[in-house]
Amino acid sequence: MSIFWNVWIIFPTLLVIAGCFFLLRACSKNKTGIEEGESMGHTFDGIEELNNPLPKWWAYMFYLSIVFGLIYLALYPGLGSYQGLFGWTSSNQSVGYEEGIKADSKAAVELAKAENRLSQYDREVAAADEKYGPIFAAYLATPLEDLVKDEEALKVGGRLFLQNCAQCHGSTGSGGIGFPDLTDGNWLYGGELATIKTSIMNGRNGMMPPKGGLPIEDSEIQGLAEYVFKLSGRDHDATLAAQGQGSFMKGCFACHGMDGTGNKFMGAPDLTDNAWLYGGSRLQVMQSIANGRAGVMPAWNDILGEEKVHVISAYVYSLSNK
Predict the structure, then answer these.
(1) Are 313 and 197 in contact (CB under 8 A)?
(2) β-pair partners for 102
(3) Domain boundaries, the chain
(4) Termini Cα distance of the chain
(5) What family classification does the UniProt entry report for this protein (predicted)?
(6) Is the model's pLDDT at 101 over the cut of 70?
(7) Is 91 within 8 Å of 98 (Cβ atoms)?
(8) Alpha-carbon Rg for the chain in angstroms
(9) Are 80 and 10 in contact, with CB atoms under 8 Å apart?
């Protein structure tokens, strides 16, 4: 933090504390020339103002608050880049994440642990690992096929899902526009237990270039959309769909298959199942064809670890396999 920002934070903070002290002192002295308990000569709505001192309990509490604030600022970070007498930090990760470099953050955490620096976050994580580590280790040792039958494990997986996955997939796993529905049994990369775990562990990068990267004219997009509607068994314009089939054969089949059933190895959607990741209206389908789509699911292995991913995988599988 620069000198300017240090001064910008420290000076106003101490100024306000000092101002509160002197204001309290000034208000505690009778400088009016009027005896305590006498009228100040002000009356409003039948209420007369008397020259009464501040309640002692209130004044003492205010003084204690000022002393507490000064002690707190001396012991803990809060005044610019000053780290406090205790050297306490909420998380050692802040050193690296300020620069936006994940590797630097991890290195900072390891260095802080080696130097035995106080970090509330690290201590809480260590305590949690000591308490819950054996439980998750036992879950990891259990095959996924057996774990999906363990009601307690599924409850744990459900809580982990709510904490880490619900932001995109929804609290019930039903997804939204651009975020897959995990309850409908339709899987871009496959819905087997091992495949689900691989998807969560390593993440997925799905990308369809505009017009599939093919020499397709803008005038062909509507016909392509009608052909996709035909593949999924929806109402469609037969004439436009026939034209769209010709456009489809220019190369769309390379990813989606000759019959449009997709390719799970590539994450290419099945166009025959009436499940629409980015919306299934004519306009949305045409936008997908014209502009392409790009979806990224982050890898959770480094974030949660395999033990927790193992449990979440069982829970996700249970959402569409009751």
Answers:
(1) yes
(2) none
(3) 1-23+50-88, 124-203+299-320, 204-297
(4) 54
(5) Belongs to the CcoP / FixP family.
(6) no
(7) no
(8) 32
(9) yes
If you search the block for the tokens 């306009």, which residue do you land on?
A: 283
Which residue from 253, 250, 286, 248 is spatially nearest to 268, judged by alpha carbons?
A: 253
Q: Where are the beta strands (DSSP E) in the chain?
A: 39-44, 47-50, 204-208, 293-297
Q: DSSP letter at 211?
A: G
**Are the CB atoms for 89 and 118 separated by under 8 Å?**
yes
pLDDT in tens, 18-57: 999 999 998 888 877 788 778 888 888 888 888 888 889 9
Q: Which DSSP category does 65 fall into? A: H
Alpha-carbon distance of 249 to 270, in angstroms, equals 16
CA distance 71 to 75: 6
- Choosing among 3.40.1190.10, 3.90.550.10, 1.10.3720.10, 1.10.760.10, the CATH entry for 204-297 is 1.10.760.10
Extract the tokens encoding 86.
């205790």
Per-residue pLDDT tens digits for 228-245: 999 999 999 999 999 999
Question: Hey, do 124-203+299-320 and 204-297 end up sharing a CATH topology, with the first three levels equal?
Answer: yes
Burial class, 45, CB count within 10 angstroms (exposed 0-12 / middle 13-18 / buried 19+): exposed
Give CA–CA dist 179/72, Å, rounded.
Answer: 45
Classify domain 124-203+299-320 by CATH architecture: Orthogonal Bundle (1.10)
Burial classification of residue 261, based on how many CB atoms lie within 10 Å of its CB (0-12 exposed, 13-18 middle, 19 or more buried): middle
Q: Which residue has the tokens 């979806």?
A: 295
Q: Tokens representing 174?
A: 């039903």
Stated as kind and residue range, the H or E segment containing 163 is helix 151-164
